[in-house]
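Run log, item B.
One chain of 475 residues. Sequence copied directly from the ordering sheet:
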Amino acid sequence: MAKVFVVEDELVLAKNVCDKLRAHGHKAEMRHNCADALAAVASIIPDVILLDIRLPDGDGLELLPKLREEAPSACVIVMTAHGNERIAVDAMKAGAFEYLTKPVDLDELKLVVDRAVDQGRVADNLDFLRRREETTSGLDRILGGSPAINQIKETITRLTRTNVLALPDPPTVLITGETGTGKDVAARALHYDGPRRKKPFIQVNCTALPATLFESELFGHVKGAFTSATGSKRGLFEVAEGGTIFLDEIGHLDLEMQAKLLHAIEHREIRPVGATELRPINVHIVAATNRDLAAAVEKDEFRRDLYHRLRVVQLHLPPLRARGDDIILLARHFLARHCDRFGMGQKRFSNEALDRMRSHAWRGNVRELSHVVESAILHADGDEIGAARLPLSNESAPDMSGDFDDYHMSIGVGDDRFVRLNFDGECPSLDEIEHIILSAAYEHTGGNLSRAARILGITREALRYRLNRASEKAQ
């Protein structure tokens, strides 16, 4: 059901239109001149306006923008008995949704109204989601007061307070840090606190898209470009036009796609799959990775030119274990948020629980902290959450002042494997250690890729990629 406002000076037609719409469940009100329509529209708050062009006291086309100013979310359908191409064009330029000529077929009019209602609801939903994103994605969402976090905030503020990000060729930003440190939060702060905030923010998980589809998803394709291309499709670069495209987990991007991405960044243009013409793009490119790209460059696993093109501005998010009292600040933030989410009264941590959180290693960083607090709330009996209610392992934060000449690390699988790090003797490479850990987690879960990925704090696709890469190197 929708509210329809009929502005029509022919009384019989206006009544017939209202009766037709009411018979199909809509509410309908009518006015017969410009003055009455303008006086009533703000109180009616219509979803659809049916507007006659020629009214006794004025021109409907001149009234149209005034009505839209009072009811900006309403779709306007113009009706006239004096139709011509010029009037139709003028109506569309003034913001009309559709243009109908008299005599109006009431069944056709009802279908047009239904279509306008559907479009209005989609627009309202998008507007709601956009406003929610804006209110939950700014710089104030980066919580903490440690020196490293303050430096991150200062850099973002310096970028967003100038017009540099609004330029046709804005500087690319590379965000690095371990999994769970909040790289996506920093990327959203750059967008929603910056000059492109009213335009789209498009997030792309580079490990979630197969290499065969990645080019089509990013750059789009034309009809017939490949077997399943039954129609043309805009790529995500074009969807993000004027806004920001966030390329998450870019460290795992295929080398062939790295070359094509570099061309798009350097020349600010893309070529859809199967197209013959290049299309210009105006987007701010932000990338993120938990991988050491400098090391990947040295191993020829990541293009050196793309690496340097991405890190025009680099933000490194520190691990939670290095952020001092930020751990407690964030824990209390998640405590309040999850208590409110579950409809529970506010709870508090015991001193022992706070000490336990300070000393924990937090390998999953802020994401792990949020899940730990959420679980503790659901298991707590009273208003105080003790250390025993925190689902934490016995792993403590590493003591960086110790002697690492003879360091043992348990892999935590049934065959009691250990990795010995002896930096003065034979020591496995970082890739070898990574492969041992990944394989151990995979075996521990009985080959369950999703569960192993959750244990390791990475995505399922990232785990598959790394296991496949290690297997290829071993061959």
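Observations after the first pass:
- The chain has four domains: 3-131, 140-316, 320-389, 407-474.
- Residues 400-416 have pLDDT under 50 and may be disordered.
Flagged for discussion on Thursday.
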